[in-house]
Amino acid sequence: MRVAVILGSVREGRLGQAVTDWFLTTAAALDPGLDLDVVDLAELDLPLVLPGWGGTPSPEAAAALADVSPRLAAADAFVVVTPEYNHSFPAVLKNLIDWHLREWQAKPVGFVSYGGLGGGLRAVEQLRLVFAELHAVTVRDSVSLHGPWSGLGEDGVPRDAEVCAGAAKGMLGQLTWWARALRTARAERPYAG
């Protein structure tokens, strides 16, 4: 089962790397059969300007897409690790999403969010709307780290590790169930969204 884990923060001093590292370790322990591929948006230089309908990407965009698009296409499922910025998700994450269409279709998406008292849940709720438009299936349960600057230890591990690992187990259980079901359905009858 191939899962693309999208690190959706590019802010300097970001906590997203520590949160992602914790999730990768937790996910690997919960399901050693997962093939986890980290897509770090800080390492991707996608332009903000998309080509017009039917147009072709600029050479710079094509070069950036040549690395990331096949990885998204090959994924059976996605986990988006996102902070909450101003009651929403980062613009760089929306830019990655908008550069792709078929890569998301008929595949499940899970979320690991962090930030403030709400733990990033407002960002997740908005991402659910975006992914629904792209014919992706978001799983109900998510992992939400409330106030990560006080909820994470210096090693990046959540202070309430048992509760967070339980949330990750629930989300991954749903994600892998949907990934298997949708992979089978896409193989038997290609999705024509």
UniProtKB/TrEMBL annotation:
Domain NADPH-dependent FMN reductase-like, by residue range, is 1-146
Q: Tell me the Pfam families matching this sequence.
A: FMN_red
Q: Which InterPro entries match?
A: Flavoprotein-like_sf, FMN_Rdtase-like_dom, NAD(P)H-dep_reductase
State the coiled-coil residue ranges: none
Question: What is the official name of this protein in its record?
Answer: NAD(P)H-dependent oxidoreductase
Native organism taxonomy: Bacteria, Bacillati, Actinomycetota, Actinomycetes, Kitasatosporales
